[in-house]
Design brief:
With 207 residues, this protein is an all-alpha fold. It is 83% helix and 0% strand. It has helices spanning 3-18, 22-59, 61-67, 69-96, 109-124, 127-136, 147-174, 176-179, 182-205.
Length: 207
Amino acid sequence: MDWSAYAAFLGLATLLVLVPGADFAVVTRNALVGGRGRGWWSAVGVTTSNLVQGGAAAAGLAAVIVRIEPLFQAIRWAGIAYLAWLAVQALRSAIRGQYPAAPDPRASSGQAFAGWRQGFLSNITNPKVLVLYLSVLPQFLTAESSIGDSLVLAYTVAVLGGLWLLVLLVFVHRVRAWLERRRVRRALDGVTGTALLGFGAALALEA
């Protein structure tokens, strides 16, 4: 692998990872709803999905999925529906304004799985992630590049995304006392629900 090209890719991948998206909203809300443990598992779910999609892109499976229109559209609309469902949950919480006592920061098995599931599903059903891998990775590969080179690039994105979400969780934990105020929670749920609806609408409006 050309390490100068890898350095350029690393810079671009870092910028792409820092752009807030649905994963950002899902992980933040899980941390507030279920505590640091559930937020952590939500981040693990997102990272697991990135590893799966990155591996699929490196192996060429992602290109096949994108070319099979019915399959691609099924994934796309599943993602739209799931984001809409998460948005409704957040907006309903904002309207009700009823929040239980702060949860134990150690997630129970049920909380852990719920966090992982939401993180994984919100990412795996987002076809824009596959398209991102397919459009960006080839720009940094040559005819001599191996599948190992492709995996290094794909997993770099997954690792950077996971690290960014962990930084986000540390920040959320630090300001948790402020974030748990009822007025702040309602505002955050309202913003999160609106943002998730926006992400879903953007997917729905794409040709």
